[in-house]
Amino acid sequence: MKYMLMRKADADTEKGVMPSEDLLQSMADYNERLTQAGVFAGGQGLRPTSEGCRIQFRGGEPNVVSGPFEPAGELLAGYSVLEVDSLEDAIAWAKQWPREDAGGNVTLELRRYFELEDFEPGQALEQHRALGRLPQEMNVHVAFAGNCKEAMEFYSEVTAGKLEAMITYGETPAAEDVPPEMHGRIVHSSLNIRGRRLMGADMAGDCYQPPQGAQIHLEYDDPEQAERVFNALSGGGSIIMPFEKTFWAHRFGMATDRFGIQWMISSQIEHCQ
Predict the structure, then answer these.
(1) How far apart are the C-alpha atoms of 184 and 168, rounded to whole Å?
(2) pLDDT in tens for each of the 273 residues of the chain?
(3) Is the N or C terminus of the chain more exposed, i.e. has fewer CB atoms within 10 Å?
(4) Contact, 101 vs 8, CB < 8 A?
(5) What is the pLDDT of residue 126?
(6) Backbone torsion region of residue 205, taken as left when φ is above 0, otherwise alpha when ψ lies between -120 and 50, otherwise beta
(7) The pairing of beta strand 196-202 with beta strand 140-144
């Protein structure tokens, strides 16, 4: 069963008073206990309602009402999501809420999530089940013959994506299972491009195979920006299809970069319906 443990707002949270270091530490310890017990599914604190709004519908028409709102005790300041076996288990965890919060004067509320099994079978329910089968993310992973670090740093510069990870074999327990010359090679790298990730790693010896039959596609609104990216990626590599107007896009081109990775760059593509 999944429960939301809601921390109700008060005068301080509605004023935007930030938690003390002691409270932050206590909450971190509490969340760690929840995590180690396998019941913590997530949680967040919320900014005061003065920074938010409500969207009220009347006759189907939306009306945006800016905060702040009252009374504070009926508002929400934060929440944790718990996965437990029963309401009693959820209550037991709620009773362990840190005493450092608001001097021990806090109101919490527990509400159980609906589950799909609670609803009558039907087409709408099956659509919800289908949505539940979607993965959290879809990313691309590419292999390199020893130049992963150089390639990923280059891609970060070209795309302005954030290089989130660059981990060598020597920095992991895998160091014991690979030859010393691989210790400086990359076992995992991750480039975040608008929430999508391009991941890569160096392959050892005969494990590396040049990628075939797959391309990484980047779409841009600005044709000039798209062309700059195309030229940067194709530099030192080879052009498969020149960057020019097509019947499906204002501009489109394909290239293999100097690391052996194939790209498709487009601007103002016409998506098939």
Answers:
(1) 6
(2) 999 999 999 999 999 999 999 999 999 999 999 999 999 999 999 999 999 999 999 999 999 999 999 999 999 999 999 999 999 999 999 999 999 999 999 999 999 999 999 999 999 999 999 998 989 889 999 999 999 999 999 999 999 999 999 999 999 998 888 889 899 999 999 999 999 999 999 998 777 888 888 999 999 999 999 999 999 999 999 999 999 999 999 999 999 999 999 999 999 987 655
(3) C
(4) no
(5) 95
(6) left
(7) parallel
CA–CA gap between residue 46 and residue 14 (Å, rounded): 10
Indicate the DSSP class of residue 120.
Answer: -
Distance CA 244, CA 266 (A): 9
List Cβ neighbours of 76 (8 Å cut-off, separation of 6 or more): 6, 7, 8, 9, 46
Going by C-alpha positions, the residue among 185, 259, 164 that lies closest to residue 216 is 259
124: left (phi over 0), alpha (psi -120 to 50) or beta: alpha
Beta bridge partners of 53: 66
Q: What are the angstrom distances between the C-alpha of 115 and each of 40, 134, 147, 160, 231?
A: 18, 17, 47, 41, 51
Name residues whose C-beta falls within 8 Å of residue 237's C-beta, 6 or more positions apart in sequence: 255, 256, 257, 258, 259
**CA-to-CA separations, 258 to 66, 76, 119, 174, 265, in angstroms, rounded:** 53, 53, 55, 28, 16
Q: What one-letter code names the amino acid at 231?
A: N
Residues 138, 134: Cα–Cα separation, whole Å:
10
| Beta partners for residue 269, in sequence order | 249
